[in-house]
Inverse folding.
């Protein structure tokens, strides 16, 4: 009780200071922080998201800004260095007094900034698919949780393609390990035997795939339909797919469904040997809808290059940014606590032609799409969920987390409420 | 003998049965054309189910155009005109496209890319198309296509396939295709009710390595009631399995040698700079990367002859990396001889500079280097053993580079001077060898070889600014393990580490295998600091 009061007082105090100092510094702009690596290994993926944010802010300003003020982007470069993410986040919040931050890509960078956002009570919009098992008052997860990407993909393979044997291949770090743990538990719950699941981890940037692909081939020759569920990260995918092609594994013998391969990753490589392999996302550039056409056109004009592709994390930023705008308009202020309360239930159009809503657990609703890689580096949607899927912070298939519930609305206001013991374990 | 006996006795009743089944009704002439047109009309729809029906309709129309249409559909070359849904073959040219009517075969001129939309297919349709094409291919004139078609058929055998098999067997001359057909027939034989026939089929499947046979036997053993048949099946299966295990071992050794050859290629340049002139060159990996980027640049200049570009890239990469190497030696390293720590730091700095300049010039994104057609795919020795051609090429290439370098060092005059300076610097100078020049040339030679390694690596892995970093540790490991200053040591060391890695990988996983190898080398160096092949006598190479 005491702590709640205290945190409330703190929130108000911080909110007041933000308001006051915001007025003192620049009365006519609202600052928005963009926290994406522009150098180092992650620059490949994150630079695009920085440009996306600049475009969205630019468009909003053309529409007249927010609450009668112009928006101003504050871009910082955390240089793919995880501790630097926390430093830069603190700088954005305390020095630049930004109203909200859009940023991070890897889970480790998000874990690094999390305490900063909670301590200073500011808002972070996180646009990338992740492993779940987290819910923070200050973070809005606009990318997919495992139940919005991995589980539906496995369902598709099981039901529509009749897959009976599973290879779970991933890079050795937290996202693949957690996702594979959830998937293995899910498959077992569906009656798949242990001997029909093969789990394999490889180091970052692995390039010698010979024996692993040979093993997959042997595993797939047992007479049952086999598929590979890949959480292999980044450029290790290129030699992996090359080796698959060389050893004669095509999409119609053993299909590979990937969770980290999108349009951006495919744009640098020859996709002919990959045709027919699958990816699961919540958005593809090839989706046919009016909002998507407009978005692609705006992107090409903004970036001045009509060969650039759009991808799923860009859509996540599009949704997250529009939700924040709507919530601020609803609350009439950019104060973090007020926006947190206003944003739950906010609904905005997504790029696949439907509407996404912010759920009480700070995750959003999205459709799940399965696409097949085409020879032009685009995806063709072959399956999609009939409706929207709400993101689940705590997986229902892991023993520790299935009893947990996240609901940030008052009176519960808890990210990990244990329904079994009826207590919020965070406090 | 057995085969003929088997044919006449066991199969006679079945043959009669099969021949009495009326053949599939074939349409011809105008009816075929009409069916084709109907099929094409249905293909325009976005719905995959509709498309599937359309494919069947086209395939069974027995119109001569059917095969061409299905192949083009599989290759993604069929588009529809957005204005009137006419189906066209399309060759893209930038933003424009040349189109040819599918039905008429007439050239319809050039249209904007936006005016046409591709007829997309998914995996299911792709499988269906391949199946239909395989049925057409069963009668192909190319034995390779026939073999592929039969192997495909083996996976989806049903009683109806038997008719097709018999007619094919009557005319087939090619031994490999015949073998595959007989395998297919024996598999059907395993599914018959007569125990005698099953025994016969087992006899014919003795030592057959086709994966379908192994699966068939496994399910047969689980369900078989007849004891003699079951015992025979168990014996057949275990002999097949031991043969498969033998080939798996061969495959593993090949994988190991191939990984080893990559290690040798990456390390052999270092064996010269580190081994012969004792410079710890941390920028060695970046010299490899420069070789890979040279390959990329040359390919950009001649996009139509990728194979030739690859051959040209070998001398070009050698020259580029060698020049950069000599530049590094002349401007930095020569002032630091005899100060290993400073050399290490300075070359590490150079490696960062090279990486960043590549990032600035070529962008931080990976570049895609194409592989020529003759280097993709694999050489199928038997159903369970296939060797990938790119790996085989690189294995041979590594051995050639090694041989070339060895001969250069042993037989040429520059090689003699290099060895002389390495053995005794002041004595060599006293004999009139220009030591400084030899140092620069040696460093250039080592760097040039690194460039050549880059050409090979561009075929296996991503060409990006970080390419070198992932090989520098491995290279040092090989050189230290093999024995500093000894080329043979590098060769044997590299291949040994490669094979060891591939034998560890299956039961420890890729991550742990790497760690174990590293631990092994640390222990080995504790025991034998000079490596596998220590330098003999007066520090001689």
């Amino acid at each position: 009780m005491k702590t709640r009061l205290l945190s409330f007082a703190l929130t108000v105090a911080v909110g007041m200071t933000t308001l006051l100092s915001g007025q003192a510094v620049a009365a006519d702009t609202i600052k928005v922080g963009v926290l994406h690596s522009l150098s180092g290994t992650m620059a490949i993926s994150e630079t695009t998201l920085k440009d996306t944010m600049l475009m969205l802010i630019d468009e909003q300003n053309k529409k007249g800004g927010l609450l009668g003020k112009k928006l101003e982007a504050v871009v910082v470069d955390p240089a793919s260095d995880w501790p630097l993410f926390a430093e830069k986040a603190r700088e954005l919040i305390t020095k630049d007094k930004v109203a909200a931050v859009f940023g991070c890509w890897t889970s480790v960078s998000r874990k690094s900034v999390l305490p900063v956002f909670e301590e200073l009570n500011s808002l972070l919009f996180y646009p990338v698919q992740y492993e779940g098992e987290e819910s923070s008052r200050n973070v809005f997860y606009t990318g997919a949780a495992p139940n919005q990407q991995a589980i539906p993909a496995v369902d598709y393979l099981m039901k529509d393609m009749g897959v009976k044997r599973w290879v779970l291949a991933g890079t050795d770090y937290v996202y693949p390990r957690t996702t594979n743990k959830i998937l293995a538990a899910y498959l077992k719950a569906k009656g798949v035997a242990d001997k029909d699941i093969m789990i394999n981890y490889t180091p970052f940037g692995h390039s010698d795939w010979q024996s692993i692909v040979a093993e997959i081939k042997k595993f797939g020759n047992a007479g049952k339909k086999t598929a590979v569920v890949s959480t292999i990260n980044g450029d290790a995918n290129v030699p992996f797919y090359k080796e698959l092609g060389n050893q004669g594994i095509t999409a119609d013998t053993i299909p590979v469904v990937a969770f980290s391969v999108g349009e951006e990753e495919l744009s640098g490589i020859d996709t002919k040997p990959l045709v027919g392999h699958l990816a699961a996302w919540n958005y593809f550039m090839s989706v046919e809808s009016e909002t998507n056409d407009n978005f692609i056109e705006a992107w090409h004009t903004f970036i001045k290059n009509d060969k650039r592709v759009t991808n799923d994390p860009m859509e996540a930023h599009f949704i997250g940014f529009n939700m924040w705008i709507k919530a601020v308009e609803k609350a009439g202020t950019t104060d973090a606590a007020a926006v947190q309360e206003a944003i739950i239930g906010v609904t905005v159009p997504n790029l696949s032609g439907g509407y996404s809503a912010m759920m009480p657990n700070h995750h959003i609703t999205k459709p799940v799409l399965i696409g097949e890689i085409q020879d032009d580096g685009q995806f063709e949607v072959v399956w999609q969920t009939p409706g929207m899927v709400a993101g689940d912070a705590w997986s229902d298939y892991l023993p520790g987390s299935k009893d947990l519930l996240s609901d940030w609305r008052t009176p519960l206001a808890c990210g990990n409420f244990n329904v079994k013991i009826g207590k919020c374990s965070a406090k | 003998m057995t085969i003929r006996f088997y044919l006449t006795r066991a199969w006679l009743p079945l043959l009669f049965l099969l021949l009495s089944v009326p053949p599939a009704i074939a349409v011809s002439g105008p009816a075929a054309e009409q069916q084709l047109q109907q099929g094409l009309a249905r293909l325009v729809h976005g719905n995959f189910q509709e498309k599937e029906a359309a494919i069947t309709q086209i395939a069974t129309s027995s119109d001569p155009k059917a095969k061409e249409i299905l192949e083009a559909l599989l290759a993604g070359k069929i588009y529809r005109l957005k204005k009137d849904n006419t189906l066209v073959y399309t060759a893209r040219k930038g933003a424009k496209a040349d189109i040819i009517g599918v039905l008429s075969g007439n050239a319809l001129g050039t249209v904007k890319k936006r005016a046409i939309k591709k007829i997309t297919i998914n995996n299911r349709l792709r499988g269906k198309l391949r199946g239909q094409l395989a049925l057409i291919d069963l009668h192909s004139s190319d034995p390779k296509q026939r073999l592929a078609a039969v192997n495909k058929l083996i996976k989806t055998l049903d009683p109806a396939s038997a008719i097709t098999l018999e007619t094919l067997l009557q005319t087939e001359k090619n031994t490999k295709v015949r073998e595959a057909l007989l395998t297919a027939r024996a598999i059907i034989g395993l599914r018959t009710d007569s125990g005698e026939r099953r025994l016969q089929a087992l006899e014919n499947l003795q030592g057959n390595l086709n994966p379908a046979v192994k699966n068939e036997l496994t399910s047969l053993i689980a369900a078989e009631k007849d004891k003699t048949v079951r015992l025979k099946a168990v014996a057949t299966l275990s002999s097949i399995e031991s043969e498969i295990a033998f080939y798996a071992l061969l495959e593993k050794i090949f994988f190991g040698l191939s990984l080893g050859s990559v290690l040798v290629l990456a390390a052999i340049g270092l064996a010269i700079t580190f081994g012969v002139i004792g410079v710890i060159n941390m920028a060695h990996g970046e010299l490899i990367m420069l070789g890979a980027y040279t390959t990329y640049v040359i390919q950009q200049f001649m996009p139509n002859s990728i194979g030739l570009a690859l051959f040209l890239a070998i001398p070009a990469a050698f020259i580029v990396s060698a020049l950069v190497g000599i530049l590094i030696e002349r401007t930095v390293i020569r002032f630091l001889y005899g100060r290993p720590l400073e050399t290490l730091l300075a070359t590490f700095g150079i490696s960062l500079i090279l990486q960043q300049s590549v990032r600035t010039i070529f962008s931080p994104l990976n570049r895609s280097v194409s592989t020529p057609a003759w280097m993709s795919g694999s050489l199928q020795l038997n159903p369970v053993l296939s060797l990938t051609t790119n790996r085989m090429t690189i294995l041979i290439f590594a051995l050639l580079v090694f041989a070339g370098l060895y001969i250069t060092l042993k037989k040429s005059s520059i090689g003699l001077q290099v060895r002389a300076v390495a053995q005794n610097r002041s004595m060599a100078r006293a004999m009139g060898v220009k030591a400084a020049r030899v140092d620069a040339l040696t460093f250039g030679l080592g760097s040039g070889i690194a460039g050549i390694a880059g050409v090979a690596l561009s075929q296996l892995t991503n060409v990006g600014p970080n390419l070198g970093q992932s090989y520098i540790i491995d290279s040092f490991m090989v050189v230290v393990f093999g024995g500093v200053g000894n080329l043979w040591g590098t060769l044997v060391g590299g291949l040994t580490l490669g094979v060891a890695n591939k034998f560890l990988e299956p039961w420890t996983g890729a991550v742990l295998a790497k760690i174990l190898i590293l631990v092994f080398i640390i222990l080995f160096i504790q025991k034998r600091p000079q490596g596998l092949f220590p330098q003999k006598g007066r520090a001689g190479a």
Notes: Chain B touches chain A through 51 residues (CB under 8 Å). The first strand of chain B starts at residue 78 and ends at 81.
